[in-house]
Amino acid sequence: MTIIAHISDTHFDGSERAMSRSRRAMDYLRGCDVDVIVVTGDLTDHGDVEEYDQVRSELVADVPVLLLPGNHDDRAAYRRVLLGGEGAAPINQLHRVGGVVFALCDSTIPGQHGGLLAPETLTWLQGVLADAEEPVFICLHHHPIRVNNPLLDSIRLQNPDDLAAVVSASPMAAAVLCGHAHAAAAGTFAGVPLIMAPGIFSTTRLPWTTTDELAWSNTFDRDDIPGLVFHVLENGQLTSHFRTVPA
Which part of the chain is the Calcineurin-like phosphoesterase domain (predicted)? Predict the structure, then answer.
């Protein structure tokens, strides 16, 4: 059995608020018996080096903590601080933990909020799946399916069909994990489960739960309790548990 803790959208911005919400989540997870923690993007709010210094010091645990970039991140600064390298190419990473392969895909478009999996990323993912002898969790920031919020759906993954073609061709694909929408949600994609982690920094309001006309200024709820997901993979069966972070 492999237990995966899944959080997203920490948005470190130098403020005490962002720091305290992420610390609350990480303090809780460090006391849990999990095998790995996955953070699906928007680690920082502005992509500044100082914000990545916070990421490096705060998103740590006694188990592997796997990170990938989101649209608020900056590839060059991310690579310099977190990976000790240089360059602005997509940051795609492969990790193996507890009998599971994690393919961390960079879905960012520099300077834009929407997402795209570049041809080199899709080719890389195809190779990961072809070589895999263990279940593969495909992780990216941008959601590839609609979440029924017009604002968020306007900045989702732009080429979901390309990703679907790669995922559906492989029997080793176990699930797709993402963030970006700041919403706890689950669906299916290319024949596998798709699970979105709620935002640590904030959550999003659903259009049918309010009479307000939602705009970018009021879509994000900064007072809601941060949440996370536990994914349990046992004998090929995946179960996902959605939880709020205890105070």
Answer: 4-183
